[in-house]
Write a structure and sequence with these properties.
Layout lengths: L1 E7 L2 E6 L10 E9 L2 H7 L14 E9 L11 E4 L2 E2 L5 H4 L10 E2 L11 E4 L1 H5 L3 E3 L6 H4 L2 H13 L8 E4 L3 H12 L5 E4 L3 H9 L4 E3 L6 H8 L5 E6 L7 H5 L2 E9 L13 H7 L2 E4 L5 H10 L10 E5 L4 H9 L5 E5 L5
Parallel strand pairs: 10-11, 10-13, 11-12, 13-14, 14-15, 16-17
Antiparallel strand pairs: 1-2, 3-4, 3-8, 3-17, 4-5, 5-9, 6-7
Helix pairs in contact: 5-6, 5-11
This protein binds zinc ion (ZN) (2 copies).
One zinc ion (ZN) binds next to α5.
Length: 346
């Protein structure tokens, strides 16, 4: 089968690999579609670890085409999306349903082969903990492939307490910032403010439900946010840009007792100095979020077809032979999300 592999930072190639055969407890998918994540690009840039030789791709959907010994409740032909986290099911985080912080967590596409290949082997531990999730009949698999980033966004907005009427400021209108706009709208948020330097992305944010868009290079994001929130600042702030320089400015957008979520990952080995009295006197909650719980994946799949514009998040489509171009498209910031699609698997 044809498969994309990550060889080293800056080097992603397409090779022939043997079609995997599922062992006990495992299943195999015919891959329908796999989306490229900003974190895959961070691996490509050498900012995040992945095992050399691994097939990347943790945002994947497909059709079950072979079942290993002892697997029950899954049949050949099932349309499924994968929650790519291998979790233990036994640690304190797994027990309370916070599988994304599992002590033993491994993730497909970094430590284990992922979805940028015609077939993908689903490890027994993913099958065992229920991370093979059925896709509703009316949800196309190429849309189901972006369940993972959508679930990560749901995790962020739930951590931020975004609900009916909540004001939300989002820094960055890349695919993840825009997914914040869509989900916040879907749950009935109040004013949504987006700060983004690229005009084209500001326009998309506006069209998809942001009330106010700000060009931070020419406009005063703090003054505009305060003005839009009765002088207080936003109830919630999501930082979706992995830039150290954006962290402190995000503090100025939040109201007292509001919440800031550092949603993006950052390049390693750099720190940000801040005044601890900012948190102390304003009682601001500063948190981060990464990935999502199994429950959030399940609810995301049910929610997706009801989220306006979500089918427009993928703008660039490639076949597996052009997998490396999917990386290039992200580096050049052309369009929004990139997808590798396998024709005929639906
Ligand atoms: Zn992802
Ligand atoms: Zn665990």
């Amino acid at each position: 089968m044809r498969a994309t592999i990550f060889e080293a930072p800056g080097k992603v190639t397409v090779v022939d690999k043997p079609v995997p055969i599922p062992g006990p407890g495992e299943i195999r998918l015919k891959t329908a579609a796999t989306a490229l994540c900003a974190s895959d690009v961070r691996v490509y840039r050498g900012e995040k670890y992945a095992k050399p030789g691994v097939t990347p791709g943790h945002e994947l959907a497909g059709v079950v085409d072979m079942i290993g010994e002892g697997v029950t409740g899954i049949s050949e032909g099932d349309r499924v999306v994968i929650c790519p986290m291998v979790t233990c099911g036994k640690c304190r985080y797994c027990i309370v349903g916070r599988q994304n912080r599992c002590e033993q967590r491994k993730t497909m596409g970094y430590d284990l082969d992922g979805g940028f290949a015609e077939h993908v082997l689903i490890p027994a531990d993913i099958v065992r903990v229920g991370h093979v999730l059925p896709v509703p009949k009316d949800l196309p698999l190429d849309l189901a492939a972006i369940t993972e980033p959508t679930a990560c966004t749901l995790s962020s907005i739930e951590l931020l307490g975004v609900r009916a009427g909540t004001s939300l400021a989002i820094m960055g209108a890349g695919p993840m910032g825009l997914l914040h706009v869509l989900l916040a709208r879907a749950v009935g948020a109040g004013v949504i403010i987006v700060s983004e330097p690229v005009a084209e992305r500001r326009e998309i944010a506006k069209r998809w439900g942001a009330d106010i868009v700000i060009d931070p290079t020419t406009q005063d994001a703090v003054a505009i946010t305060k003005d839009a929130t009765g002088g207080d600042g936003a109830d919630a702030v999501a930082l979706t840009i992995g830039s150290h320089a954006a962290v402190i400015p995000s503090f100025d957008l939040v109201r007292k007792q509001g919440t800031i979520n550092l949603f993006a990952g950052f390049p390693p080995k750099q720190t940000v100095p801040f005044d601890p009295n900012f948190l102390h006197y304003n009682e601001v909650i500063l948190t981060g979020s990464q990935n999502a719980t199994t429950d959030q994946y399940r609810r995301t799949i049910q929610m997706m077809k009801h989220v306006a514009h979500i089918d427009e998040v993928v703008t660039n489509r490639y076949d597996v032979e052009h997998g490396p171009q999917a990386y290039e498209s992200r580096l050049s910031m052309s369009g929004l999300k990139s997808l590798v699609q396998f024709p005929g698997v639906e």
